[in-house]
Design brief:
Blueprint (H helix, E strand, L loop, with lengths): L2 H7 L16 H8 L8 H4 L8 H6 L22 E3 L2 E2 L5 E5 L26 H12 L6 E5 L8 H12 L6 E5 L2 H4 L6 H7 L5 E5 L9 H12 L4 E7 L7 H13 L3 E7 L13 H11 L10 E6 L4 E5 L11 E5 L5 E5 L3
Length: 347
Amino acid sequence: MSSWRKILADSITDPADLPKSFRIDRDRLAEVASTYPMRINPYYLNLIKQPGDPIWRQAVPDPLERTNRVCPEDPLAEEALSRVPNLVHKYPDRALFLVHSSCAMYCRFCTRKRKVGTERLRISHESMQAAFAYLERTPAVRDVLLSGGDPLLLDDDRLEWILTELRKIPSVEIIRIGSRVPCTLPMRVTGRLAKMLKKFHPLFLNTHFNHPDELTPEAAAACNRLADAGIPLGCQTVLLKGVNNDPAVIKKLMNGLLHIRVKPYYIFQGDMSRGTDHFRTPINEGLEIMDTLIGRTSGLAIPRFAIDLPGGNGKVTMLPDNARGGEGATWTFRNYLGQTCSYLDPA
């Protein structure tokens, strides 16, 4: 068994198995994990310094996940936008292709927490073939994003097969991979994997770091290995209450990403996914954080602040000098199709 597979196999999936030094109510956490699965591999577990810290909050179940005021199960209407199983076609020239059902660590704020790591996300050879067939008969799609779950948890050969099939489709010009593995299980990014991915350019990888404590030597080595293979790296950070909703933390993270050759791409307002209400931050807070970055650090370290609007209405980006609303207000946006959409800001 390879080293990364051994680490993954040793993951904790039951709160009862968390280190005894953590003084917590394991029974209450187990109730949460029975609805929203838990997986923390030993590498990521070792980043936790104490209960309640930013790494803990991302990885360990919280009883607050069972309380919810306004968030739906499928906030981005991915199921309704799936033309065939596991292929979401929302934007005219792009498609989201779910190719794996699990992750190296189950983020408590995941937009797909309703199904990642459960039987509700089923991916088969037949569903893959249906997705390839859809892409072949839909030449408007020129950009395919592989996600899941985490595509980099696939075996090298299986991932290579998927990439090869996509490259057979003339209209697919760009392939992107969305993966948190460089952050949560960086030893998965082997030299063999990087060499294989290099064959499929133009290929891009967007990863996901939320806190400076995740920028470890192991993560740096993984990102450098990918960058050395010519793969452009971006980061999609999610703004999370109690994790990174602090201007100093975000600035340190953005500059740290550049040190490991990852371009900050987006800071996302947290999606309105059921079970994540306690992570949500007011929009003005995100705008204020952006205001502390612009002009105060390198432009390379400044991402776009974006909201993926509920109902499958797409992303909108915001700047600090845009009009603002008050806390608890309903914001109104115009999406990429010119449609007016509303968003309820958390109080």
